[in-house]
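Lecture 7 notes: from sequence to structure.
We start with the chain below.
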Amino acid sequence: INHLSDTSASKASEVVEVLGRIGGVSKIFGLTTVQAGALSSAFLALGKPPEVAATSINALLLKLQTADKQPAKFASALKTLGLSANGLKDSIQNDAQCALISFLETLKEVPKEEQMGILSDLFGAEYSDDIALLVGGLENYTKALDNVSDKTKYLGSMNREFETRSKTTANNLKLLGNTV
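Predicted structure tokens for the same chain:
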């Protein structure tokens, strides 16, 4: 979480807040905590407040996870994308993270003038704008995933943060005050 905060426009405290709200759905969907953190960070880096990011992520994951239970309008939108509800569900069960990225990349390929209609049919008007933002900023999500894909990239992140903060003038003044 600290490394995601250091490498994006998200704040660690906000990532934690979103994770607290999406933990159950993301786990059932099949995302690891690290992957859910990257998704949270991506939404936050795109300018969404934690409560909006969490609600949008929950809606996205829930609708995709239950694709075979959604109304005909949802199935029709999937068909427009060249997908099926059962195929999507199987893909999620096999590799949730890969299925999510593939789904978002498929949406990104849709011509802009058709994208909002499809998103509205899939997620409803209340979430289509947030999902559209994620689709448009998909590189934020893939970058966040890349930043946490290898433990060596973020191992020691907290120590580096501590060292950086301990070298500040404010910290040195506080230490001086403690000594006095």
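Points to note: The chain is about 80% helix and 0% strand. The chain has a mean pLDDT of 88.
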